[in-house]
Amino acid sequence: AAPTMIVNDAGRLVFFNDAAETVFGRPFAGVGEVPIHEFTASLRPRTRDSEPLPPERRPARIALEERRANHETFMITSADGIDREISVTGVPLFAHADEFVGVMTIFWRE
């Protein structure tokens, strides 16, 4: 399975799968339902040049706020202290055309 994270329409992380544990360095049970901006900040997202990745360039936030799919490659530091380059695609989720319900984010390790 691809590492996947789900965020609800209020911007709270509600789930990530076992495959995502290997990217984040910890299980979902150790994180719980938290605001996505807090969880993402804990990973210290940054560009390949080690510049902080601004929130407005983070795929989950773009999908949440702008309701559009997007993709970005950047660096994180997982909870186990390992620096990883990841590619991330954020996709808004709709129950119906006008009913936004959250975001699905898929990760690939480079």
Overview of the structural elements:
- With 110 residues, the chain is α+β, with helices and mostly antiparallel strands.
- The longest helix is centred in the middle third of the chain and has 8 residues, at 59-66.
- Helix content is 20%, strand content 38%.
- A 5-stranded antiparallel β-sheet has the order 2-1-5-4-3, with helices on one face.
What is this structure, in a nutshell?
This protein has 3 helices and 5 strands; from the N terminus they run E-E-H-H-H-E-E-E.
Please give the structural blueprint:
Layout (H helix, E strand, L loop, with lengths): L3 E5 L4 E4 L1 H7 L11 H7 L16 H8 L3 E8 L5 E14 L2 E11 L1
Antiparallel strand pairs: 1-2, 1-5, 3-4, 4-5
